């Protein structure tokens, strides 16, 4: 890693350690990690990803949990551990990492509170995974690869630790989304003139995760095409676009929510064209 990237990586780590991700943008820094807190995180996650739900488990429509029984699973950047909980509950042999001690502490607390099986949860950097080649059957990297200075290196590490035929899935932010082009670039950058004193990268950091805390240290947006290129070494890579209808409902502005007058089917369709989340599924 270059010196510049190392410096940025430290800033990213410190920021997430001080601002653990809870799916509640208004949350105070001082959180009380009890059962109600973790279930509220799960509830918010599910509300934010309706496209991912088949049953009450987060991402049950897109992760075949039953196929992971007894399989080696790596959960990358676990936040408060909602996904690690699901892998452990289904009986996968899961290892879980986050770059911040705070997230690891929170996920371990979750496991203690809900009496989940002893699990390997530890601090590690996805850009330098501490496992030998060909270790895992399945890797999840939800909402994290776009927050790392060296995203390509993290993808290459995922490829390395996957067994041949192993699968990975992840979520990254979609550049060609209403969120980026309309609400951030046009609305904040052009109409409010912020691009006169901020770079596009600073704008992305400021108006995505941590918006009520002054923005985070690094958020990158990618197009589906860029993602497919970055996952070029994998034998298969599928990218699909998803979102809630919130950004469409409130278009062009939350004070003038004209989008909600569009027929529900059209709003739903638009989430698959200009939604914020890219769901990536790849096979080694
Ligand atoms: C937006 S949060 C998502 C957390 C979790 N996946 C969730 O959905 O709750 C991003 C997470 O990535 C972690 N992270 C950032 N850079 C990382 C890295 N290089 N390696 C591992 N985790 C990292 C942060 O500490 C933070 O917990």
Automatic annotation (TrEMBL):
Gene3D superfamilies: Vaccinia Virus protein VP39. SUPFAM superfamilies: S-adenosyl-L-methionine-dependent methyltransferases. The keyword Cytoplasm does not apply. Residues 74-168 form the Methyltransferase type domain. It comes from the Bacteria. One of its GO terms (molecular function) is S-adenosylmethionine-dependent methyltransferase activity. This is Methyltransferase type 11 domain-containing protein.
């Amino acid at each position: 890693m270059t010196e510049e990237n190392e410096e940025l990586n430290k800033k990213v780590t410190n920021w997430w350690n001080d601002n653990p991700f809870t799916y509640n943008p208004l949350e105070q820094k001082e959180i009380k990690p009890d059962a109600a807190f973790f279930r509220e995180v799960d509830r918010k996650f599910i509300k934010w990803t309706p496209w991912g739900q088949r049953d009450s488990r987060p991402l049950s429509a897109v992760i075949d949990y039953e196929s992971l029984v007894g399989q080696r699973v790596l959960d990358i950047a676990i936040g408060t551990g909602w996904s690690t909980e699901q892998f452990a509950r289904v009986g996968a042999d899961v290892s879980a990492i986050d770059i911040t001690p705070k997230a690891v502490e929170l996920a371990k607390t979750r496991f203690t509170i809900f009496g989940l099986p002893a699990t390997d949860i530890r601090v590690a950097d996805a850009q330098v995974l501490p496992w030998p080649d060909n270790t895992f059957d399945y890797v999840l990297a939800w909402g994290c690869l776009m927050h790392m200075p060296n995203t390509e290196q993290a993808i290459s590490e995922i490829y390395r630790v996957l067994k041949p035929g192993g699968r990975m899935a992840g979520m990254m932010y979609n550049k060609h989304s209403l969120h980026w082009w309309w609400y951030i670039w046009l609305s904040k950058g052009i109409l409010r003139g912020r691009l006169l004193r901020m770079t596009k990268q600073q704008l992305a950091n400021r108006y995505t995760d941590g918006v009520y805390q002054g923005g985070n240290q690094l958020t990158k947006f990618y197009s589906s095409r860029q993602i497919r290129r970055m996952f070029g070494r994998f034998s298969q890579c599928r990218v699909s676009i998803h979102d809630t209808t919130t950004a469409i409902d409130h278009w062009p502005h939350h004070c003038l929510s004209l989008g909600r007058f569009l027929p529900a089917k059209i709003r739903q369709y638009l989430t698959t064209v200009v939604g914020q989340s890219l769901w990536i599924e790849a096979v080694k």
